[in-house]
Every structure is written in structure tokens, then in C-alpha cells.
């Protein structure tokens, strides 16, 4: 059986991707007591995580905006995923006011018992997870330009930036 994981609570959690658009690999990554755990996920799972997360946050009168995306939500490498995510569920424990992400390993029918992951997070971590998951899906996890706040292409720089007149990296 693969390794099951419980981070209750997690110190940090994110959902993001690595690779160029069209060839990205998506991950959920969590840290507890210095231990990083990464699980491979599908783009559709990360999109659903962001959408359901926003719905749960709206129940407690929180709306996630692009301003909630922070640089500390980037994946931490090297990434060595434990396993591939199958079923994912996200919920709110109203008694503890904590959010819970549960993931069950994707296994081939008839194979071993699937591993599970349980990540418990507070409101601040939930907002960060939802914001960055949406950012990763919609914008490929690309950084924003510090000048114009447009999306930066990893090879060409910021194509719409007024400093570069929309022609790529600034040359001095």
C-alpha cells in the first residue's frame, strides 16, 4: 500500500502546476513540521478545488480575489509525488472552523487498497489555496510583472508591459 498522510493542521498548502501551458503537471502540496508532501492531480481536479473552495468560503462571507494570490504559494522543489490523486473532497468543519481536503489515491481496479491524504487548514491557508489554485489553472502559474502586473511569459518576459513597449524583455 502507498503511504497515507495526515497534516492536521497543515502549516502550508498549495495547488499549482509545473511545465509550459499544454504540458503542465498539476500538484497539491502540503507542509507540516518541515515535511513536504506532493500529490499529482488533474487540471480539472484543481479547477474543481478552486471552485468548491470559493463556494465554501462564500458561506463564511469570504470572497477570494486575485489580490489573495501570494508568492509564497509556489510549489517547493524538488517535487517527488507520493501518488496520483483519484477522488478529492473539500469541506468545512463548523465546530472547529477548519477546512478539510481529503484525497484518495487513484489505483487500478483490483490493485491494493488506496492511500489517503487528509489536509486540515485554517481560513488563511484555505484562502491561499483557493486563490493560487484558480491562478494556476487560469494563468498557468505564471508570475505577474512588477511594473504593469501583466502575466509574464517565462521565456519572453512581460509582453504587454509599457516599459518594453509590448515587445518583450526590457533591454538596457
TrEMBL record:
Top-level taxon in the UniProt lineage: Bacteria
State the Pfam families in the record. Answer: DUF3090
Q: Which organism is it from?
A: Euzebya pacifica
The protein, known as? DUF3090 family protein
Write down the InterPro entries for this protein, in alphabetical order.
DUF3090
Amino acid at each position: 500500500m502507498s503511504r497515507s498522510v495526515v497534516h492536521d493542521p497543515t502549516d502550508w498548502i498549495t495547488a499549482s502546476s509545473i511545465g509550459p501551458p499544454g504540458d503542465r503537471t498539476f500538484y497539491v502540496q502540503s507542509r507540516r513540521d518541515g515535511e513536504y508532501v506532493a500529490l499529482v492531480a488533474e487540471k480539472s481536479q484543481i479547477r474543481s478545488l478552486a471552485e468548491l473552495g470559493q463556494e465554501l468560503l462564500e458561506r463564511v462571507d469570504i470572497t477570494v480575489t486575485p489580490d489573495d494570490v501570494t508568492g509564497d504559494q509556489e510549489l517547493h522543489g524538488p517535487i517527488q509525488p507520493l501518488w496520483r490523486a483519484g477522488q478529492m473532497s473539500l469541506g468545512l468543519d463548523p465546530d472547529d472552523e477548519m477546512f478539510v481536503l481529503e484525497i484518495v489515491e487513484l489505483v487500478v481496479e483490483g490493485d491494493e487498497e488506496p492511500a489517503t491524504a487528509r489536509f486540515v487548514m485554517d481560513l488563511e491557508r484555505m484562502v491561499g489555496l483557493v486563490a493560487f489554485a484558480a491562478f494556476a489553472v487560469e494563468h498557468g502559474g505564471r508570475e505577474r510583472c512588477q511594473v504593469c502586473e501583466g502575466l509574464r511569459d517565462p521565456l519572453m518576459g512581460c509582453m504587454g508591459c509599457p516599459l518594453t513597449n509590448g515587445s518583450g524583455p526590457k533591454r538596457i
